[in-house]
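To whoever is on call:

I kicked off a structure prediction for a single chain this morning and the downstream step that reads the tokens threw a length-mismatch warning. I double-checked the sequence; it's 289 residues and nothing unusual in it as far as I can see. Pasting both halves so you can look.
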Amino acid sequence: MAIAEPYIAPPIGRRFSGATRRFFAGSSIRNHLALGAVGLVVVVTILAPWIAPHDPKLPVGNPLMGPGTHFWLGTDEIGRDVFSRVLIGMRSSWWGAVIVIASGVIFGGLIGLVAGAAGGIVDTLLMRFTDSFLALPGTILAVALVAAIGPSYAHTLFAVSIVWWPLYTRIVRAEVRKLRASPHLEAARLAGAGRVRLAMRHLLPGAVPSTIVAASLDVSALVLVLAGLSFLGLGAPAPAPELGAMSARGVTYIFESWWVPIMPAAGVFLLAMMANFGGDALRDRIRDR
């Protein structure tokens, strides 16, 4: 009778290289380019204070100078470098959206996990609490909150975070309720696993892929919402370089100095487009696994 040889796990480096090959084999060139573009946006926004050639808050040239070799995107109405201001504005918009999504995933995901795992009256109460936020228009509620507590960048992020978490609650709850009836969860329950262990070890990991996809696709929407609030004057006060506020102040110069309002708007469009492409690529990647 032959004796089976013990299994020896491959070296760590070989396991990682195999995972890398499977990743690139399962994705299209479009997805590679999209994820690479998102990675470039992340790097540029992190290094923006060092990449910006001028101080974004101080005049460095004559007012309303056109794009050229010295000022790549021209100067605004008081002589500040538009390229530096757009770069810093893209940084605040991108990472502001990431902060809002992270808070929504943590808070909303926790409520969804508890509601889906507990069921019964706990589920009912938590979901009615969530529905009370969904019943109100999120953007209008955020505008009202910022107007009530005063315009600033931190207040804008806080107000948007208040109205953004219910989506993740519903996603996590739906995934958890679907996983509760799976055979492996029943086996873990029969083996003596408690509710906390079942929720953290078996239910929560199953909800992660759908939550990641929803969060990645939400970045573009949040960039637009934050830019819209800034356009309405509910963001950081001047001279803070916020894309929406820059476009709003530059509208009066659109015919004679088009770059003043158009370049910040182009920065918003670029961020939203890159976030959408990256979200689509990530969704395809997770779906193909």
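Update from on-call: the warning came from a stale cache, not from the record. Cleared it. Sanity check on the structure: Confidence is low (pLDDT under 50) at residues 4-20.
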